[in-house]
Amino acid sequence: MLNRVMVLLLATVAAGMVSLSNAGLVELESVPVSSDSQDCLSCHEELHPGIVSAWRQSRHSRITPGEAMQVQGLGLKVSSKEIPERFLNVAVGCAECHTQRAEAHAGTFDHGGYEVHTAVSPKDCATCHTQEADQFSRNLMAHARGNLVENPLYMDLARTIEGRVARKGQQLDFTPADPLTQAESCLHCHGTKLEVMGFKERDTLHGLMDFPVVNGWPNQGVGRKNTDDSLGTCGACHNRHQFSIEMARQPYTCKKCHVGPDVPAYKVYSASRHGNMFSTHGKEWNFTNVPWTVGEDFTAPTCASCHVSLLADPAGNEIVPRTHQMTDRLPWRIFGLIYAHPHPVSPDTSIIRNDEGLPLPTNFDGTTAKDFLINASTMAERKENMSTVCRSCHGSAWVDVFWERFEQTVQTTNADTLEATKIMTDIWKSGYAVNHLAGGSPFDEAIERRWSDIWLFYANHIRFASAMAGGGDYGVFANGRYHITKEIMELNEWLTTQKKVKGGQEGKE
Ligand code: HEC
Ligand code: HEC
Ligand code: HEC
Ligand code: HEC
Ligand code: HEC
Ligand code: HEC
Ligand code: HEC
Ligand code: HEC
Fold first, then answer.
1. How far apart are CA 402 and CA 282, in angstroms?
2. Within 6 Å (CB) of ligand 5, which residues are found?
3. In this predicted model, what pLDDT tens digit does every residue of 80-108 receive, in sequence order?
4. Domains of the chain: which residue ranges?
5. Looking at the domain 325-502, which fold is it?
């Protein structure tokens, strides 16, 4: 790679008037704004000072795509090789994002002569950030909405969690949640579908104006379906209108969605040694440099360092490339459905069918729907990608033992889930609860909830504690092994008691 001084010198000659930014990149002192965007600013400066000042602080207002493309080496932030002429020599302003690809967006409205759409989508960003948009589309996250709503079994689970419950006779009856509740619940993270319902006149400071009425908006869910039918939102991690890399690299950004008892990544990270170091020394670290230099810019990883970031050594050599396809560094899907398993091949998991014909990546007996999952050599490649990150701070013996313990944890938690599922299957077969095979749901009875807690909460806690390098208590007493064994004891005792009382023949419902 060219060293930074050389990059700056070359860029200085090319750009004329430049000054240095602390990131070691070029930055124009004054960047021309297109006349369209100046028009937007003339009203919105007063209407939305918050939006305009966030944009002024962003790199989009401070460097033109043409300038950005001249950066050589790892500091290059704009991945598109060709960017249409009209964008090259102006700042990326309001009009550059909100009026491009107007014909592709169902929600486009006439706004004082401009064809504007509100929900700027990954395909709009792709004009300048092709690589990030391509990679993100191959990520589970971009498909998070479809992976839930196109899967009848998962929607059945959703119904028993977010749906309306009413008592009918002795039974409880669950009906699916209404759209407003869904947007507040599962789809808050997984993403809503933006649907243009029509247009409505609003009385504004600038008189009557027409705006679209969009069901499902606002929403920043990772797998949102947009008004141009593209999937996902970059805004889930990149806050508008600052779009700062600094925020994307902080663990708090991921915490919004990765914190619950089912997906406790943040909790476990914040209790781990890596998280302790981030809380103690993070204030002194540099979160804006690109590439991100291990040792110089930071000394312990955040979520981004292990899962996404382009990392370099102090000599400027690349350690790992940036990836918005986070599965590049993940051999295992540790989120149990209902067992941990190798990652799915396609990010669209709604296409998976197990041996029983259910849309699940594993069978109830613990084996996998292997045709839909990555093979051993892909797993090995991905493990090596992640290990390369670890080895920038740890010796290989440390890293190898880490994987050995982690993979053992995957096996033992799967074995616990299997024992629990055997007991549950006995309960269903004995008729003490009614599952999907008998025309019911495997999720809507109290005893079934105890079974699902085992794989959804406790097995996941133990695996995340192991994967995120040691949120110690989360693997044992805080929703960990203590709870798995306790729940298995109680599940078993419940079944034994039922058999004593009912003698094993009559069912419910
Ligand atoms: C004549 C003044 C004016 C100009 C010029 C103008 N806007 Fe607006 N814009 C408004 C007003 C007023 C609103 C409504 C604000 C509200 O409802 O709080 C609005 C709302 C919006 C919204 C939100 C729409 C929604 O779905 O609620 C977007 C996005 C937007 N403008 C973008 C732009 C862009 C991009 C430009 C330049 C191409 C622009 N505006 C130019 C006055 C203007
Ligand atoms: C880099 C692209 C980009 C640029 C530049 C940009 N926007 Fe946006 N804007 C977005 C995104 C992304 C959203 C989030 C919309 C969504 O997906 O829900 C948004 C949302 C908005 C909204 C609705 C927000 C709300 O809370 O109601 C308004 C209004 C708006 N932008 C106005 C502007 C104005 C004015 C400018 C210029 C100062 C501007 N935007 C520049 C991408 C951009
Ligand atoms: C017309 C081109 C263009 C479009 C469209 C565009 N960007 Fe950018 N983006 C840029 C340029 C230019 C930079 C600054 C590059 C530099 O500093 O070298 C940038 C930088 C960024 C950065 C890095 C910021 C930092 O702090 O280092 C992020 C993140 C980003 N853009 C996200 C987005 C997202 C998300 C969208 C869509 C909502 C988007 N961009 C749309 C051109 C664009
Ligand atoms: C706070 C954010 C959040 C909410 C709310 C949320 N989820 Fe999730 N969901 C996640 C995350 C994060 C993952 C990925 C976990 C992982 O990979 O470790 C996930 C993954 C899933 C998956 C796996 C999908 C697949 O095939 O890959 C299912 C199923 C699921 N969630 C169901 C639900 C249901 C049902 C609800 C509502 C009752 C819900 N989620 C609400 C964040 C959320
Ligand atoms: C708006 C919510 C949200 C935010 C913010 C978010 N995620 Fe996710 N993430 C999800 C959901 C939902 C899934 C599960 C998708 C599925 O299984 O269909 C997921 C899945 C994942 C996965 C599984 C692999 C894959 O291909 O997607 C990883 C790894 C991940 N997220 C890491 C991160 C990191 C790191 C951050 C922060 C930089 C982050 N996420 C921010 C909601 C979010
Ligand atoms: C799940 C969180 C997440 C989502 C969603 C996401 N990003 Fe990022 N993005 C990150 C992280 C983390 C970084 C920092 C990477 C690094 O340190 O190298 C980043 C960095 C970037 C950069 C900065 C590149 C540079 O060299 O400075 C750009 C541009 C970018 N993302 C564009 C996008 C676009 C476009 C989308 C939507 C298609 C998107 N991102 C969606 C997490 C995300
Ligand atoms: C030290 C590096 C490291 C850090 C820091 C880290 N992770 Fe992980 N993460 C891993 C490893 C290793 C795995 C397990 C590998 C696998 O699943 O194949 C993992 C697994 C995951 C998974 C499960 C993926 C799946 O498909 O089931 C998610 C989601 C995740 N991490 C999110 C996060 C979030 C959010 C943070 C920050 C709060 C974070 N990680 C911090 C290394 C890290
Ligand atoms: C940027 C440097 C850096 C990276 C990258 C990194 N670590 Fe660490 N890690 C550290 C430091 C520093 C410590 C603290 C050592 C101490 O406490 O003395 C640590 C501690 C640990 C611990 C000990 C936890 C405990 O509480 O005992 C484990 C396990 C670990 N790391 C595993 C990993 C794995 C696995 C990866 C890759 C997935 C990784 N680390 C990546 C810097 C890093």
1. 24
2. 139-141, 143-144, 147, 189-190, 220-222, 236-237, 248, 253-254, 256-258, 303-304, 307-308, 326-327, 330
3. 999 999 999 999 999 999 999 999 999 99
4. 1-100, 129-232, 325-502
5. Hydroxylamine Oxidoreductase; Chain A, domain 2 (1.20.850)
